[in-house]
Structure formats: structure tokens, C-alpha cells
Write a structure and sequence with these properties.
The protein is mainly alpha-helical and 240 residues long. Helices cover 77% and strands 0% of the residues. The radius of gyration is 60 Å and the shape is elongated. The termini are far apart.
């Protein structure tokens, strides 16, 4: 411990002590650092296998580079053809599904399912259950409750149809009355205008209008004339 803690400066007078102490430490060689060969293999066989492994790894790297180049070229061709990634996905899915359908596992599974279906449909339990269900269905349709329910639903449907028909006829009648009223009104207006009562009323309105207009004109003339200033316009007390 004292020799390891000594100064290792080159200018120190004790520089040779550390080197002398380190001479006793064994140094492992590269051969001893290499893992030992598996049991049953000689050194020559190990070297041959290692050389073959290096070649295989080199070939794998070369193939990966070639595959990457092929994929880039494939992408350029698809881009020139206008094919989208979605088209490629659809094509891959279709191909995968086709491969599944033609695979031995799919074919065997389909055959097994068909056999199981035949066995189930031909079994006594299935036939008994089917006949029991048919009997229950026949009894249900022939029961009084089922018949009464069917008759009630039928009557309700007929009543609903009749009510809807009545509503439709009422709406149609109302629309017909409105259209006939508008036609009668349009026809009666010219006849009313040509009647004697309407003409007499129109004459009286015209007479009143002419008198009102004449009185306004007289009052305007009296205001503008110098001799007529301050004079009141004559009152017209004639009856209408």
C-alpha cells in the first residue's frame, strides 16, 4: 500500500519504485481475452465458423442495401403512375385476404365448421328443439289471446285509417270552400259596380268632392285679390 501511494512524478527521486512494483502484475494477452471455444469444437472449426458468420452478415447488409434501393425505385414508379398509399394498402389487404382464403389452415377450418354444422343440424337435440319451437308457434297462433290481439290491432288500424280519411276530406272541403268563395268574390265585384246603388253612391261622392275643391279655389282667389281682402267666402248651405 505504501508503494502504491508514492509520488509518480517523473522528476521524483522515487520514480523507479512504482515501476518495480508493477512488474509483478500479470498482463493478459488478446488470446486469453477471447471467449473459449464451445465444447466439441477445435480451434480450426471455430475459426471457420466465425469466418462464415462474417460472410453471412456481410451478405445480409448487401441485401438490405439492395432492398432499400428497390423500395425507392418502386415508390418512384407508383408516384409516376398516380398510385396513392391508400391504393397500395387496399391491394395489400386484398392479397392478404386471398392468401388467407387459400391457406391450408383456412380451408381446414372451413371444412371443420361445415362438418360441425352438419352434425349439429342432424343431431337429435337440434331436431327435437326445432319441433318443439314449431309446436309452440302453432299453439301460439291458434290461441284465443293471439286471435283477440290480432283482431284488436286490425280494428285499431281500420279506425286510424278512417280518421285520417275524414281529416283529409275535411281539409279538402275547406280548401274547396275557400277557392269557391274567392271565385264568387271576384265575379260579384264587377256586378256590384254596375248596380244602380253603387252608381248613385259614386255620383254623390263625386258631387261632394267637386264642391270641396271649388270652395278651396274660391278661398284661394279671395286671399290673392285686393278688393276681396277680409271678405268671408259665401256659405253653401245646399243639401247634398
Amino acid at each position: 500500500m505504501e508503494s502504491a501511494s508514492q509520488d509518480i512524478n517523473l522528476n521524483s527521486p522515487n520514480k523507479g519504485l512504482l515501476s518495480d512494483a508493477m512488474t509483478d502484475v500479470p498482463v493478459e494477452s488478446a488470446a486469453s481475452a477471447r471467449p473459449s471455444a464451445p465444447e466439441g469444437l477445435t480451434l480450426a472449426e471455430e475459426e471457420e465458423l466465425r469466418s462464415e458468420l462474417a460472410k453471412v452478415e456481410e451478405e445480409i447488409g448487401t441485401l438490405r442495401q439492395v432492398l432499400a434501393a428497390k423500395e425507392r425505385h418502386c415508390g418512384e414508379l407508383k408516384r409516376k403512375l398516380g398510385l396513392t398509399p391508400l391504393d397500395g394498402l387496399k391491394q395489400n389487404l386484398s392479397k392478404s385476404w386471398h392468401d388467407v382464403q387459400v391457406s391450408n389452415a383456412y380451408v381446414k377450418t372451413s371444412e371443420k365448421l361445415g362438418e360441425w354444422n352438419d352434425k349439429v343440424t342432424q343431431s337429435d337435440l337440434y331436431l327435437s328443439a326445432s319441433s318443439t319451437l314449431e309446436d309452440w308457434n302453432e299453439k301460439l297462433t291458434q290461441s284465443e289471446a293471439y286471435k283477440k290481439t290480432q283482431e284488436t290491432l286490425s280494428q285499431a288500424g281500420q279506425k286510424t285509417s278512417a280518421a285520417l280519411s275524414n281529416v283529409g276530406s275535411v281539409i279538402s272541403r275547406k280548401l274547396g270552400d275557400m277557392s269557391s268563395y274567392s271565385i264568387r268574390h271576384s265575379i260579384s265585384m264587377p256586378a256590384m259596380r254596375n248596380s244602380a246603388t253603387f252608381k248613385s253612391f259614386e255620383d254623390r261622392v263625386g258631387t261632394i268632392k267637386s264642391r270641396v275643391v271649388g270652395s278651396r279655389e274660391n278661398s284661394t282667389d279671395g286671399l290673392h285679390s285686393p278688393s276681396g281682402a277680409g271678405e268671408k267666402p259665401p256659405q253653401d248651405n245646399s243639401p247634398f
